[in-house]
């Protein structure tokens, strides 16, 4: 059984989207355990734009519960994919494990997927820009997952 874990900061945006996108792309294929976690995972709600974007894709993450990344999760997972460089560094520092970036695995580019506050520091005061960025990232992750499936045997 192959287990795949996506990691971001809060486990309510990037890693959550990747988890649900991969589950949707896998469909009923057996042999995979898919999950996500955050290096912080402070209690927060899924942003309404993220929830709506995933519902539009045909998946319902409303039952998702944030999860903090732990040593047990790290040790139980075959493939871990980080969304940002800070996640890679944190995993390396806390657990001594090297993990690839989502964009590197899926698109062959060595770039992180930045959180909305990293792109738009005053994101709460910029609702239109924030919404557009969240939707862009959802589509980017969703479109990248088939590439991840193609490259999974090499991971």
The CATH topology annotation reads as Rossmann fold
Q: How many structural domains in the coordinates? A: 1
CATH homologous superfamily heading: Response regulator
Largest sheet: 3 strands, parallel
Overall residue-averaged pLDDT value: 93
- What is the rounded Rg? 15 Å
- What proportion of the residues form beta strands (DSSP E)? 5-15%
Outline the low-pLDDT stretches: none
Percent range of helical residues: 40-55%
Structural class: mainly alpha
- CATH architectural type: 3-Layer(aba) Sandwich
Q: Output the helix-strand order.
A: EHEHHEHHHH
Strand order of the largest sheet: 2-1-3
Using the alpha-carbon principal axes, give the shape.
Answer: globular
Q: CA-to-CA gap between the ends?
A: 14 Å
Q: Quickly name the level 1 CATH class.
A: Alpha Beta
What would you call the quaternary organization?
A: single chain
Number of helices: 7
InterPro entries: Ptyr_pPase, Ptyr_pPase_sf
Protein name: Putative Low molecular weight protein-tyrosine-phosphatase
Keywords: Hydrolase
Pfam families: LMWPc
Describe what you observe in this structure:
This protein has one domain: Rossmann fold, CATH 3.40.50.2300. It is 48% helix and 12% strand. It contains 7 helices and 3 strands, in the order βαβααβαααα. The protein has helices spanning 14-26, 48-56, 71-76, 85-95, 102-107, 116-119, 127-151, and strands spanning 2-8, 32-38, 79-82. Strand 1, helix 1 and strand 2 (32-38) form a beta-alpha-beta unit. The protein is globular and about 40 Å long.
List the helices and strands and how they pair.
Elements: E1 2-8, H1 14-26, E2 32-38, H2 48-56, H3 71-76, E3 79-82, H4 85-95, H5 102-107, H6 116-119, H7 127-151
Parallel strand pairs: 1-2, 1-3
Helix pairs in contact: 1-7, 2-7
């Amino acid at each position: 059984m192959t287990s795949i874990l996506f990691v971001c900061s809060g486990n309510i945006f990037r890693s959550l989207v990747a988890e649900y996108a991969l589950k949707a792309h896998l469909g009923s294929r057996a042999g995979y355990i898919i999950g996500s976690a955050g290096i912080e995972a402070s209690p927060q709600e899924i942003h309404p734009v993220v929830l709506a974007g995933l519902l539009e894709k045909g998946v319902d993450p409303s039952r998702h519960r944030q999860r903090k990344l732990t040593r047990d999760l790290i040790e139980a997972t075959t493939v871990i994919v980080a969304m940002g460089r800070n996640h890679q560094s944190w995993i390396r520092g806390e657990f001594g494990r090297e993990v690839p970036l989502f964009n590197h695995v899926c698109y062959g580019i060595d770039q992180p997927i930045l959180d909305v506050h990293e792109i738009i520091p005053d994101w709460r005061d910029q609702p239109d820009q924030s919404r557009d960025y969240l939707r862009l990232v959802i589509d980017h992750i969703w479109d990248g997952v088939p590439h991840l499936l193609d490259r999974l045997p090499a991971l």
